[in-house]
Amino acid sequence: MDEKTNFIYNEHTGEFVDVQGVNIRFTAMGDGDPVLFIHGIGQTAYTFRRNLPEFAKYFLAIAPDMVGYGFSDKPDLSYSIEENSEFILALLNALRIKQTHIVAVGSGAIYALDFMIHYPERVGRGVMVAPGGMTRNFPYWVRALNGALAPAASAMLTRKVVAETLSACFFDQTVIRLEDVETYFTSLDSKLAKNILVRSIQNFSEEEVLARLKTLQHDTLFVWGEDDKVRPMEEYARNYFGIPPHAQELVVRNTGHLVHEEKPAKFNAAAIDFLASYEA
Question: In terms of pTM, does the model score above 0.90?
Answer without folding.
Answer: yes
